[in-house]
Amino acid sequence: MDRRTFIGTLTGSLLAAPLAAEAQPEAQAYRIGILNPTMAPSATTLDAFRKRLADLGYVDGQTLHFESRNADGHSERLPALAADLVRLRVDVLVTFGSQATKAAKDATTTVPIMFLGVASPVEAGIVASLAQPGGNVTGATDQGHDLSGKMLQLIMDIAPKGSRIGVVGDFRSPGSIRTQQDIDQMARQLSLTLVRREVRIPDDIDAAFATLSRDRIKALMVNPTPALVQRSDRVAKLALENRWPSIAYTRGMAEAGLLMSYGASWPDLAQRAAEYVARILKGANPADLPIVQPTKFELVINLKTAKALGLTIPPSLLQRADQVIE
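Above: the chain sequence. Below: its structure as tokens.
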């Protein structure tokens, strides 16, 4: 090859290289729909979800984009929000709680759905079984129904024996019905009287708490319903004003001012949910992904609230706590 031919070949190769690079297709960007009955997942939960996805190669703002919708504690808005996310053609719908999951399931039979925090997905009719969910839905359960007895035992470390315990929540769902049955059984064993008050929307809270005050309850158990989670600050304020030791399933409610929380670790569930989302994006069928069950549980105690109530938390209970808010 003479010098002129060599230079021409080299120049052509150098010019072609950038063109070839420019011609390479960009990595596919996926859209994840987030459907929540409250304002948003807690920052800790969402951060854990996003970080795990990033570790798996799905980086928010690069290969992944989130579309979030929330119902502000009004569950009746969920069907329209779910339909909106389906119209956006998201690749996966991530839902929080049974009501959001049901709305998503009614909105689509083709978009994969990954739920978090459905206490009883089989009883709620969301999946066929824990081992083989079927359809387009899988998820991570928080096993809330299995924790209710433990929560009553924890509150009994604070409240006197034979107390009347108030329970607030939305008791319509199959999962909630099972939870209430478990609570009733444990209450009989502990010689407790339960006083239930329904809270379906945020506007129900004040009236429910006023009735519980007249009923002279001595402690309060809060179910993780959208309306109550959405108004955690108000729930905590009313519990404190009535001087009730209180317990909930979710850490966020203890952080908002309730005395205690005991439940599955949501950041841990979120990380495991992210792993399922990554598998779905790679082609896995939700029907074949067994329901994730929690392996980490958290007891959170708010000492600021205990001090305001004039309570001394037993040292044995403090030693068992995973987090103490001071």
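The chain is about 45% helix and 20% strand.
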